[in-house]
Amino acid sequence: MSYLAFEKSKLINLEQSLFKEILRTNRAGSYSSSSIVGCHTRKYHGLLVCPIPAFDMTRHVLVSSIDASIVQHEKEFNLGIRKYHASHYEPKGHKYIRELDFDIIPRKLYRVGGVILSVEEVLVAKEEQVLVRYTLLEGHSKTTLKLKPFLANRSVHELTCQNLHANTKYQKIQNGISIQMYPTLPRLSIQLSKENEFVAVPDWFRGIEYFKEEKRGYDFKEDLYVPGYFEVEIKTGESVIVSASTKEQKSGGFKLNSTKKLKAAYPVMACTIIF
After folding, report:
1. What is the β-pairing status of strands 4-7 and 21-25?
2. What is the CA radius of gyration of the chain?
3. How far from 208 is each of 60, 179, 183, 205, 243, CA to CA, in Å?
4. Which of 65, 124, 222, 246 might form a disulfide with 159, Cβ 3.0–4.6 angstroms?
């Protein structure tokens, strides 16, 4: 049984859910943090935030988030959420969340029509690496996952904007891509646990806002870079794992189907809810 759980009514109400945050840390000095529905409210939030030796170990947000979309019958449902000007949230993926529970690994359950998708995030204990596991619990038709990484590559004390200095070229690696946007930051490898198609659609998503920074009187808008998206078919009962790391991984090394094996292989240093 989970020691803490949130039901649908508390999750879809942004006036409540945006003020509850998750923080995960590890022994490498990295962390992963956001609101419980995945909408960042601070510039310190990110999916993979790592200390960088070239900057006196100052932590940098490398991967801001990964948007997952469910595709069935040529209809796409984006499960992500971000805030823009005038309290406009797009996409509005929080409305599909049905449950969030916490054991050692936090798990969100999304329901879109007849599809039920489980999403679990693990920060690897001694590596600058985060794993996100997507498991299709129910899906009565052909189902495709589209996974879109949002990259920040900046200090936790700063914000980034679209610029000509960013190197947006990527290299193909095993089941994924690697990209090094700035020479002083590490090369980032994003890989899946199975073969997939990467579709290059490079773009900057501009004007993303963090309202808690605005309330503190700090700069609160930034632009995030998206190199494209991964597209992969997923069957009922199947799991697809995404790895984001400062090192290229052997994708077979994170093909773990059971939560028990996932916990054993990738122990979490801490998981904390901040109210």
Report:
1. unpaired
2. 17
3. 18, 22, 25, 7, 24
4. 222
186-205 pLDDT, tens digit per residue, is 999 999 999 999 999 999 99
The structural domains of the chain, ordered by start, are 4-274 (2.70.98)
Q: How many CA atoms lie within 13 A of 66 on its CB side?
A: 27
pLDDT-derived band at 103 (thresholds 50, 70, 90) equals confident
Residues in the chain: 275
Phi and psi for 85 in degrees, rounded to 5?
-60, 145
Neighbours of 26 (CB within 10 A): 23
Binned at pLDDT 50, 70 and 90, residue 269 comes out as: very low
Distance of CA 87 to the CA centre of its chain: 22
With the C-alpha atoms ordered 237, 35, 76, 173, is the resulting torsion angle positive or negative? negative
pTM over 0.70: yes
Q: Using an 8 Å Cβ cutoff, are 3 and 256 in contact?
A: no
Distance of CA 138 to the CA centre of its chain: 22
